[in-house]
Amino acid sequence: MEKGRREDGKSSEVKILVIGTGAIGGFYGAKLAQAGALVSVVARSDHDSILAEGIHVESDAGDTRFAPEKVLRSAPDYGDPPDIILVATKVLPGADTPNLIRGAVGPGTSILLIQNGIDIEEPVRLTFPETEILSGLAFIAANRVGPGRILHLDYGRLTLGRYPSGPSSRAEAIRSLLESVGVPCLVTEDVVTARWQKLVWNAPFNPISVLAGGVDTRTILGSEESTRLARAVMEEVSQLAAAAGHPLPADVIDQNIQGTRVMKPYKTSMLLDFENRRPMEVEAILGNAVRIARSLGVAIPHMETLYALLKLVDSRIGS
Amino acid sequence: MEKGRREDGKSSEVKILVIGTGAIGGFYGAKLAQAGALVSVVARSDHDSILAEGIHVESDAGDTRFAPEKVLRSAPDYGDPPDIILVATKVLPGADTPNLIRGAVGPGTSILLIQNGIDIEEPVRLTFPETEILSGLAFIAANRVGPGRILHLDYGRLTLGRYPSGPSSRAEAIRSLLESVGVPCLVTEDVVTARWQKLVWNAPFNPISVLAGGVDTRTILGSEESTRLARAVMEEVSQLAAAAGHPLPADVIDQNIQGTRVMKPYKTSMLLDFENRRPMEVEAILGNAVRIARSLGVAIPHMETLYALLKLVDSRIGS
Questions:
Q1: Residue B8 burial (10 A CB sphere; 0-12, 13-18, 19+)
Q2: CB spacing of B308 vs A226 below 8 angstroms
Q3: From first to last of its 319 residues, what are the pLDDT tens digits of chain A?
Q4: Which phi and psi (to 5°) does residue B2 adopt?
Q5: Identity of the residue in B219, B228, B315 whose CB atom sits nearest the CB atom of A308
Q6: DSSP letter assigned to residue A21
Q7: Could you read off the pLDDT of B19-57 as tens digits, one per residue?
Q8: Using a CB-CB distance cutoff of 8 angstroms, which residues of chain A are in contact with residue B311?
Q9: CA distance B288 to chain A (A)
Q10: Nearest C-alpha of chain B: how many angstroms from A311?
C-alpha cells in the first residue's frame, strides 16, 4: 500500500481531508493518494475497517489500494488544517455539512464539494464566507460494495471549479494530480452552469428510474412515453437554467438522450439508494430546482410531478 | 336465495346479462336480482363456483345472495337476447368488449358499460351503431374477495345515462330497480360530462397512490407537495373537459379535495390491482385523456408525467 508519498520523496504534498468514504470519497481519495497527495479520511461506520484495511478501489482499469495518512472519526481530530477538505457525503436534509467540517477549516483551506444536485453549496458558503469553495461534479459509475471497498464500473471524470465562479489555482492543482494518474479532470470558471448541465441528466433519469418501478436507462429510453417525459424534464431544466442566468447549449437535450442510448444500461444512484432502502437525494436533485423555479416564476410541471411523488416515496423509506 | 322473481309473481322481469363477476358486476348484479330482474352472468374463472354457490355480497348494510338465472361461459350461450347487457369488466388494452358480447346483442338490447375511464364507449359504439349504449359510473368501495364473493365496503351510487347523450327509458328502468333496493342511482342526459367529472378524482388519486409507493388517500393529502400535485392534475382534467365541450362546475376541484379529506382513508382500485400484480386501467384512466389532450392541443404535463411512469410500471406487472 502506498502511503501518499511521491516517488521523488518531496514533502510538499497537498494535504487533503476526505469527508465520507463512499464511492465518491473512496475513489477520488484513492486516486489523489496515488498521485502523491497526503490523504486522510473521516469515516464513521467504516472507521475501524479502513484503519485496519485501508481503502481499496477495484476497477477494470487497475486496482488502487491506499492507507490514509490519518483515519479519523471527526474532522476536528485532523490537527493543523488541511489544504483541501473534500466533502463527498450525500446531500440529505438532515446532513449538516458546515458542522461536519467546522473544526478543520483553516485560513488556507479550500473546501471541495463533490456532490449531486443544484444549489448545494449555499450552506457552506454562508458558514465560511472567507473560504474558497470548489464545487465538483463526478461523472462516474462506482459503488461502495463494503467498508472501504469501492467498485469502479466506468468513467471517472471530475469537473470542478471555484464557486460561484472564477479561476482557482487549487482546482488546477487537483486537476494535475488526477490527470497524473489517468483520471480525466476539467476545470471550469463557471461551475454553476456545469451543475445545471449535469442536472439535465440527473433530473429525469434519477427520479424516473425509481418511480417507474426500478428501471435502468435502457428501459426508460425503450418506451416512447418515458423518453418523451425525459426530454420534457430536460427541456424544463434547460429553461430554468437559462432563467437563472446559466443558459445551456442548444443541443444539450439531444446530446444527453443520445449519450445515454449508447451507454451501458445504467442504474442511477437514486435507484441504488432506493433498492437499498437508503434515503435519496430528492431535495438536492429536484427540491432545490423546484424552489428556484418557484422563486423565478418558471413553470416546471413535469419536474414538480416527479418531485411530489418522489418526496412521498422517500418519506416512507425506512418506515 | 332469490331466483330473480318479483313478489307479485309477474313474468315481465327485465332480463339482464352481466359480463364480469368482479366487485362491480357482482354488486349491481346482485342488487338488480334482488330488485326483481332476471339476472344471468357470464363468468370465466369463477364459473363453477358461481354455478354451485351463487353470488354473495357481504355488506354492513345487509348481505345479498343470489343464484343467477343462467351462469354462462360466454355471452352467445344466453339464447334469446337480453334486454340489457351489463358490462363490468376492466378496461384493458387486450380486452375486446365488442367481441365479448357480440353473440348476445339483439335489436331490443341496451348495452350498459359500468367501467372506469374516459372515452371507453367508442369501440362498442362503432361495433353496434344501432344499439342503445348506456354509460355508467359506479361510486362504490367494494372488492372481490373470492369467486362470487364481493365485500361491499361503502357507497354504491350508480350514475348512468345514454351515450353520448340524451334520455333513456332503459336507464330510468335501471334506476327504479336499484332505488327499490336502496341503491342510489342518478340518471343523466349528459353522461360524458359525468365521466369527466369522475376523472377529476380518478386521474390524480389512482396514479399517485401507485407511483408514490402504495399510499392511501389520507397519505396523499397529508403531504403538501402531493396535494398540490393532485390539485394540478384536477385542474388539467377540468381544462381538458372544457376543451372537449364538457365544462365542469367551478368548484369541482375543491369539492373533490374536501370530499376526499373527509372520506375514510381509501386504497384506489389501481393500487389494489398493483398490489395484487394485476394489470391496471392505465389507458382507460390516463391514456385516453392524454390522447384527447394531444388531439385538442391542450397541455396536461402533470398527467403526461403520471401516464409515462405508470405505463412503465404497468408494463412490468407480471413480468
A1: exposed
A2: yes
A3: 444 444 554 447 999 999 999 999 999 999 999 999 999 999 999 999 999 999 999 999 899 999 999 999 999 999 999 999 999 999 999 889 999 999 999 999 999 999 999 999 999 999 999 999 999 999 998 989 999 999 998 889 999 999 999 999 999 999 999 999 999 999 999 999 999 999 999 999 999 999 999 999 999 999 999 999 999 999 999 999 999 999 999 999 999 999 999 988 989 999 999 999 999 999 999 999 999 999 999 999 999 999 999 999 999 986 5
A4: -75, 160
A5: B228
A6: -
A7: 999 999 999 999 999 999 999 999 999 999 999 999 999
A8: 223, 225-226
A9: 14
A10: 8
Q: Provide the grid cell at A207.
A: 427520479
CB within 8 Å of chain B, chain A residues 293-312:
301-302, 304-309, 311-312
Instruction: Give domain limits for chain B.
Output: 15-189, 194-316
The complex scores an ipTM of 0.91
Which residues from chain B sit within 8 angstroms of residue A315, using beta carbons?
Answer: 223
Cβ of B305 within 8 Å of Cβ of A302? The answer is: yes
Q: Does A113 touch chain B (CB under 8 A)?
A: no
- Domain formed by B194-316, architecture: Orthogonal Bundle (1.10)
In chain A, DSSP assigns E strands to: 15-19, 38-42, 55-59, 64-66, 71-72, 84-87, 110-114, 132-146, 149-162, 185-187
Task: Name which of A309, A313, A319 to mutate to probe chain B: the one with the most chain B Cβ atoms within 10 A of its Cβ.
Answer: A309
Asked if A232 contacts B318 with a C-beta cutoff of 8 angstroms, the reply is no
**What distance in Å separates residue A141's CA from the closest CA in chain B?**
24
Distance CA B210, CA B268 (A): 9
Cis peptide before B164 (omega within 30 of 0): yes
- What is the CATH code of the structural domain delimited by A15-189? 3.40.50.720
Full-model pTM: 0.92
Query: Can B3 be counted among the known catalytic residues?
Result: no
- Residues A130-180 have pLDDT tens digits of 999 999 999 998 989 999 999 998 889 999 999 999 999 999 999 999 999
